Input
Amino acid sequence: AVMLFYAVGEYFQDKAVNRSRRSIKALLAIEPDYANLKVNGTTERVRPEEVTVGQTILVKPGERVPLDGQVQAGESFVDTSALTGESVPRKVKTGESILAGMVNGIGLLTVKVTKPYGESSVARILNLVEKAAERKAPTEQFITVFARCYTPFVVGAAAIMAVVPPLLIPGATFGQWLYRALVLLVISCPCALVVSIPLGYFGGIGGASRQGILVKGANYLDALADTHTVVFDKTGTLTKGVFRVTEVSPRNGFTAAEVLAAAAQAELFSNHPIAQSLREAYGQEIAEEQVSAYEEIPAHGVKAEVAGKEVLAGNDRLMHREEIEHTDCDVQGTSVYVAIDRKYAGYIVIADEIRVDAPAAIADLKALGVQKVMMLTGDESSVAARVADQLGVDGYYAELLPEDKVARVEELMAEIPHPKRQKLAFVGDGVNDAPVITRADLGVAMGGLGSDAAIEA
Output
């Protein structure tokens, strides 16, 4: 009986996982059917699996992007709601990345494929659900082991009850003790546990998938239920991560146009949201051959040679690191300091916008029993304080290097009263957050599906 009901439980478990997979496909409907491959000046319709990295595809208006790639030509608005939940279309143009599953708007895009179909955004989503079946929660693992040990014990005890008493007890009949042995089997069967535990966990995974939340395994659901502290990265998580230039203040004889141009050109190869905002504000094509000796300095900024001139673009720490004399600015927003040929050229003010639903989400977390909500950021203290006050978090750490974030998370984990049964969750947008996500008890990557490193962490 136990073996039968265990098999029934496994059947429902597999069914729940398959339903999760189907619900994701139905919810996102992002699995592409074909790709328009450019071959010798002509276009052929092929299966996405047949396209290799480096080949060029066309994405026509209204079509779904079949593979991850980089836009080589064209400009359009793409619907990213299936991947990110954002209802507002996102503008893409030459040089920007585009993900499989996005829906092209009105423009024709020429895309160079950067990942094979098996590593695309679509494949990653389905792979996450498939791996969820392999990662069982501790409770589920205990029930599985318990049932495997408990079954032979109960069957053995029932066999002894059916055979031994008739041989040792005068007047006892085999039929009477066989009936009692069968009763023992029935009352000893943990049917409810064997069936309900797997079904409960995978039903939860399926329900989350229908809301666009991908859970990598049932074990993470237990950690989520025991969360004591939630730590958020600021940019792209609590804020939209969509920066815009609000002010350019030149110094030492430079013009505003020179300062903005130098910063945008120096940030040509960076994929940070601030770098993208600088290039958008500049609004002109940047020739790659003009930029050389590019160096990205984590949590500081960038250093590059632009048309033969050394350009520094970053925060106050970069100026101090490079011993550039400058004046601090007190503005509402993030300041990007610019130096040209070791001479301070001015600063650019970048503003980010808090997500509309972020304060309500933090309040809901506290209502659900989360004891502490913290914010980490590499931004300046003045900016962090303003954002933290608007969000209602319990505290924040600002001006952090990537390694500092890991250290702060470890400090917060040490402050949890009962670390064995209370957990810390970290929520980031996937940009440089993989080390912190790995260190936390529970990691959440959000915003454009997060980076590959963050998802694997």
